[in-house]
Amino acid sequence: MSKEIRVRIAPSPTGNLHIGTARTALFNWLFAKHKKGTFVLRIEDTDLERSDPKYEKDILDGLKWLGLEWDEFYKQSERMDIYEKYIQKLLNDGKAFWCYHTKEELEQEQKEQMANKLAPRHICDHKYKIPQNKEGGIIRLNVDEKSDEKIKFNDIIRGEIEFEEKLLGDLSIAKNEKTPLYNFAVVVDDHETKISHVIRGEDHIPNTPKQILIGKALGFHNPSNPLGQVMPEYAHLPLILGSDKSKMSKRHGATSITEYNEEGYLPEAMFNYMAFLGWTPKDSEKEIMDKDEIIKNFDLKNVHKSGAVFNLDKLNWINSQYIKNLSDEELITKILVLSSRYQVLSNKENTIKKILPMIKERMEKLSDIKEFLFFFKDPEYEKDLLMWKKYETIDIQKTLEMVKELVTEIGVGAPDTLREKLDDLASKLKTDPDAKPDRGLVYWPFRVSLSGQKGSPDPVDIAVVLGQEEVIKRINKAIQKLK
RNA sequence: GCUCCCAUCGUCUAGUGGUUUAGGACGCUUGGUUCUCAUCCAAGUAACACCGGUUCAAAUCCGGUUGGGAGCGCCA
């Protein structure tokens, strides 16, 4: 009842922070914040071969970027003596033993079992023998292959789940006394750091009975629990899926949080989007919800059971909503960060400030600034883009000449006046006196000559930012193209 | 092959036996504004996998079928 809430995220530094790991971290964090509990970060680096400090850094940076700060930090590689103590205990108690079967033998055994339609598992006869030497073996937990026991546990999201003990086989728990394997290290750490709730992806459901068995052997069993459950409670989250509904992976697109950061997604938007993947607040139809409100509403009980497909369109939409809600100062700061990639943005704070109202509603992500680089440098485009409807090259050229005259005459300081004059020009240019003026004949080539884009903000607005001299220069370039 | 998990529009989801001609959001389509794009506004599109059972009544409960997914390492 009064048990303190303690949860953990336990990534292994064998790759960058994966979106699935980040979502698991997020749900753990939300649960902890909602319950005023403790969020623990544990780096699972027992496999020294595959672990790399650069990945650890990426994971830490990614979690911080998302705003998922941890309260406690552990590294398994720094806790090896603890595992050793428990491995020794199991060995001494006769609950674990050395297995000297070769990988080939194990493979062969599994092959035969599959061929005979049996559950693949290693039933080791070495547990009945006294080991002669300890070279080349590994340590396994002694599991009764004749047991009729069912290993049951309650999952907060899915209800009761059960497995048959005898189908598990003698699980590997350590490479040697000093080197624990995943399932063993998890159980020891969760116990030692008093984790109250294990919240992780549903791909860990099959690991749960193994960990319960290890926990029981270690004496971590909680006798007050009618299900005979070891200490933590479990909640298995639905997976994040790719468009083909299989587990999200590289081939589905960007999977690391770093990539989303670099593409110009805002951490708040990612937070919001990921929170709503596999969870919906009760009694709310809001899709845009800030951190505090999500924390307030968060409850494992309304986490969904089925996997959720990661949908970039929706993320883009949410991100665009967050961009629109940014203050000008915040947006400028974020855009300037991108100037390392787009050199022309360097020291252009004033220009960026001027174009903000134009680009804010057109950006889904910050990297979309690349569509607006024409504000900072000459646009490149094909001559044909200047053409409007069925008009001839010569018509467009003449129009541009007249627009140039207008700009030369009245400048760009009075946009409303310029617009009026451009409208007048359109009226003057119409061939059929009864038809409505075709403003496109004037505005389209003018706009293209300034932006080089088939879609962009209003040419007069662009002209105001560029200034008279630059505008005339660009119109001249366009006219040259047409000649 | 074995074990486990899951099943409402293309996608994210609301819905916990009657208020549902199944609601919202994204996407898409159309219209309005407009030189274009975007924004904004309006409208449209589209789903309870199937078969049984329980019940006066089932998307909602039960069973089965089918389908999808995950796990099956001396990785984590």
TrEMBL record:
<feature type="short sequence motif" description="'HIGH' region">
    <location>
        <begin position="11"/>
        <end position="21"/>
    </location>
</feature>
<protein>
    <recommendedName>
        <fullName>Glutamate--tRNA ligase</fullName>
        <ecNumber>6.1.1.17</ecNumber>
    </recommendedName>
</protein>
<comment type="subunit">
    <text>Monomer.</text>
</comment>
<dbReference type="InterPro" id="IPR033910">
    <property type="entry name" value="GluRS_core"/>
</dbReference>
<dbReference type="InterPro" id="IPR045462">
    <property type="entry name" value="aa-tRNA-synth_I_cd-bd"/>
</dbReference>
<dbReference type="Pfam" id="PF00749">
    <property type="entry name" value="tRNA-synt_1c"/>
</dbReference>
<keyword id="KW-0963">Cytoplasm</keyword>
<feature type="binding site">
    <location>
        <position position="250"/>
    </location>
    <ligand>
        <name>ATP</name>
    </ligand>
</feature>
<feature type="short sequence motif" description="'KMSKS' region">
    <location>
        <begin position="247"/>
        <end position="251"/>
    </location>
</feature>
<dbReference type="GO" id="GO:0005524">
    <property type="term" value="F:ATP binding"/>
</dbReference>
<dbReference type="InterPro" id="IPR014729">
    <property type="entry name" value="Rossmann-like_a/b/a_fold"/>
</dbReference>
<dbReference type="Pfam" id="PF19269">
    <property type="entry name" value="Anticodon_2"/>
</dbReference>
<keyword id="KW-0030">Aminoacyl-tRNA synthetase</keyword>
<dbReference type="InterPro" id="IPR001412">
    <property type="entry name" value="aa-tRNA-synth_I_CS"/>
</dbReference>
<dbReference type="InterPro" id="IPR000924">
    <property type="entry name" value="Glu/Gln-tRNA-synth"/>
</dbReference>
<feature type="domain" description="Glutamyl/glutaminyl-tRNA synthetase class Ib catalytic">
    <location>
        <begin position="4"/>
        <end position="317"/>
    </location>
</feature>
<dbReference type="InterPro" id="IPR049940">
    <property type="entry name" value="GluQ/Sye"/>
</dbReference>
<keyword id="KW-0067">ATP-binding</keyword>
<dbReference type="InterPro" id="IPR004527">
    <property type="entry name" value="Glu-tRNA-ligase_bac/mito"/>
</dbReference>
<comment type="similarity">
    <text>Belongs to the class-I aminoacyl-tRNA synthetase family. Glutamate--tRNA ligase type 1 subfamily.</text>
</comment>
<dbReference type="GO" id="GO:0006424">
    <property type="term" value="P:glutamyl-tRNA aminoacylation"/>
</dbReference>
<dbReference type="InterPro" id="IPR020058">
    <property type="entry name" value="Glu/Gln-tRNA-synth_Ib_cat-dom"/>
</dbReference>
<keyword id="KW-0436">Ligase</keyword>
<dbReference type="InterPro" id="IPR008925">
    <property type="entry name" value="aa_tRNA-synth_I_cd-bd_sf"/>
</dbReference>
<dbReference type="GO" id="GO:0004818">
    <property type="term" value="F:glutamate-tRNA ligase activity"/>
</dbReference>
<feature type="domain" description="Aminoacyl-tRNA synthetase class I anticodon-binding">
    <location>
        <begin position="347"/>
        <end position="479"/>
    </location>
</feature>
<dbReference type="GO" id="GO:0005829">
    <property type="term" value="C:cytosol"/>
</dbReference>
<comment type="function">
    <text>Catalyzes the attachment of glutamate to tRNA(Glu) in a two-step reaction: glutamate is first activated by ATP to form Glu-AMP and then transferred to the acceptor end of tRNA(Glu).</text>
</comment>
<keyword id="KW-0547">Nucleotide-binding</keyword>
<keyword id="KW-0648">Protein biosynthesis</keyword>
<dbReference type="InterPro" id="IPR020751">
    <property type="entry name" value="aa-tRNA-synth_I_codon-bd_sub2"/>
</dbReference>
<dbReference type="GO" id="GO:0008270">
    <property type="term" value="F:zinc ion binding"/>
</dbReference>
<dbReference type="GO" id="GO:0000049">
    <property type="term" value="F:tRNA binding"/>
</dbReference>
